[in-house]
Amino acid sequence: MIYLHLTVAFSSLLMSPISASPLIAYATNTIAQNSEIDEPFCYMKTPDGQTVDLGKLCEKQPSLGNSQTCIPGSNIAAKVSIAATNYDGNFFSGQVLNQGCKIIKNVKVNYEVLDESGNLIDNGFIYAEPVTLAPGQSAAFRGEVVAGAKVQATHADGQE
Asked: How do residues 118-127 score in pLDDT, each as one tens digit?
């Protein structure tokens, strides 16, 4: 029932007599701007006559693609972020994200294993999969490590 009212509200909005010109994205309608009517631009009327502001639904949504700004430069470690790491006593896993402007290959996450006192027991690296990461793409890593009190990622390496 709500969908029907929403459809009617949007279709009446598109067929509005406010302007004879077609509705164009980002077009400015001076008649609507100077109007003294106190109704939101994007709204619907409920069966009981109330006006519901749908402004948040009508705003332009950010694209879900890679809209973030890439980090230029030659330091791969600064362009690969390591996130969501987990150590379960046997395996160390997590995610890496290519924040650079170029494709990165063979990303490996360097880690260290510490004992209860914080002393280094072991260190090594685990390769992330998939092998090739485009800008904005993430990859997972998981590998068996020497048992210790704590395992932490130190940095990531790769090749452009």
From this structure: 999 999 999 9
